[in-house]
């Protein structure tokens, strides 16, 4: 999920709605990493964030952390 989305809501709000309705966590991959947005992500125990550019290892590690945290297979 990206933080910046076209439309009325941002990615953080969309991720919260998706999680509350479908119990699906989000991983943010974004170049838009202002302090306010990062605090909103980090202050919410539901999400992880990766800043662009990122390595293959960072993505793999974050996916595994998310799977473990939410017990996804």
- Give a short account of the largest sheet: 2 strands, parallel
Average pLDDT works out at: 84
Level of helix content?
40-55%
Could you give the order of strands across the largest sheet?
A: 1-2
Evaluate the radius of gyration.
12 Å
Note the total helix count. 3
H/E topology pattern:
HEHEH
For the terminal residues, how far apart are their CA atoms?
20 Å
Structural class: mainly alpha
Plain-language structure description:
By secondary structure, the protein is mainly alpha-helical. It has one domain (11-69). 47% of the residues lie in helices and 11% in strands. It has helices at residues 11-22, 35-42, 56-69; strands at 27-30, 48-51. Strand 1 (27-30), helix 2 and strand 2 (48-51) form a beta-alpha-beta unit. The longest helix is centred in the C-terminal third of the chain and has 14 residues, at 56-69. It is globular, with a radius of gyration of 12 Å. The mean pLDDT is 84.
Explain briefly what this protein structure is.
The chain is mainly alpha-helical and 73 residues long. It is 47% helix and 11% strand. It has one domain.
Labels describing this entry:
mainly alpha; 11% strand; single chain; 73 residues; two-stranded parallel sheet
What is the topological layout?
Blueprint: H1 11-22, E1 27-30, H2 35-42, E2 48-51, H3 56-69
Parallel strand pairs: 1-2
